[in-house]
Amino acid sequence: MGEIPHFAGVELGGTKSIAVLARGDEIVERVAGPTGTPEETLGRISQQLKRWQSEHGFAALGIASFGPLQLDRGLSGFGDMLATPKPGWSHARVAASLSEGLDCPWRIDTDVNGAALAEYRWGAGAGCSSVCYITIGTGVGGGLVIGGKPVHGAMHPEIGHLHLRRAPGDDFAGTCPFHGDCVEGLICGPALAARLGGDPAQVPDDDPRWQAIASDIAEMVGIILLTVSAQRVLIGGGVGLKRAFLLPRVRQMVLERLGPYLPFLDKDSIETIIAPPALGDDAGPLGAIALAQAASAEA
After folding, report:
1. For labelling, which of 134, 174, 231, 249 has a CA lying 20 to 30 Å from the CA of 273?
2. pTM for this model (two decimals)
3. Dihedral of the CA atoms 126, 127, 131, 134 (nearest 10)?
C-alpha cells in the first residue's frame, strides 16, 4: 500500500481564513487568521502554502472561498472574486494569488459548495444524492451538491440573496447593500445585530424577536426543498451552529407549512432532513480538502 498523500486546503471566509494540510482526509496542520485586505490575507496564506509544498510536496490544492466567484473556466477572470459586499475584495484574484508558484493541480469553488461536498463525502450527507449546506454567519451562503458534484451553471447558487415571504408584522428593512431584505440582509450576523439592537449572542433564546428570524430561515429551507428536492439541508456557520434553539423552531415551521404537501416530510424525517452539519466547524476546511482531492483525481 502506498503512502497516503498530503492535500492542502484554504477556507477563505468573510471574517476568518484557514489554511489546512491533510493526509488523506485527516487534517494534520491548521493555520488561521483574520480576513483583512486581499493583499495581506492572500499573501499570508500563499506563503504558508509554499512552506507546506516545500516540506511535504502536497498533491493538490483546494480553495473554498466566500463569493461570489467567477467559476467559468472559459471566461477571463476565472477564479476571481466578483462584486461583493466585503470592502476591497471585489475582483480580487483569489485563485491566481493562492496557486502562484505551486506545482500541483488546484480547484476553486465557493466555501459552501466545498462544505456541501465534504458533508456529502464524510458527514451528514453520506448516502444522499442531493445535499444543501447553508452557512449563516458574516453572510449567508448556500452550497448544493447533486450526484456527487457541486452545482454550477451560469454562476453558482446564490441562495443567500433569495427574497422571502416575510413574517406578518416584520418590517425590518434588511442590510444587504444590493437587495435590502434578501435572506442575507435579514439573517446574517450584521443583520441580526441591527435587527436585535446589539450583539445577537447576548439576546436570550426566549426573546420573541427570534420568532421572525426562525420564520425567515424556515422560508429559505422551504424554497430549497421545493426547488431542488434536497435530501439534506444542513445549517452551519457561526449563527447556525451557536444558536441551536433555532433549529427545532425552523423544523416545526417547515413541517407546518410544507408537511401537508411534501410526502417525504413528517415529524420523524424532518430531524434528519433539516440538521446541523455532522462535521461541525470542520465542514469548511474539509470542503477545501475535498476540492483538492477532486483536483488531484482529475489531473
Report:
1. 174
2. 0.93
3. -30
d(C-alpha 236, C-alpha 151), whole Å: 19
- What are the C-alpha distances in Å from 265 to residues 85, 228, 229, 231, 257? 36, 15, 11, 10, 10
Amino acid at 119: E
Contact 287, 7 (CB under 8 A): no
What residues contact residue 289 under an 8 Å CB cut-off, 6+ apart?
Answer: 7, 9, 20, 22, 25, 27, 62, 118
pLDDT tens per residue, range 132-174? 999 998 889 999 999 999 999 888 888 999 999 999 999 999 9
Count CA atoms closer than 13 A to 169's CA, side-chain side: 5
Separation CA 100–CA 232 (nearest Å): 36
- Tell me if 133 sits within 8 A of 234, measured CB to CB: yes
pLDDT tens-digit readout, 52-105: 999 999 999 999 999 899 999 999 999 999 998 889 999 999 999 999 999 999
Calculate the CA dihedral of residues 163, 176, 183, 200 and round it to 10 degrees.
-150
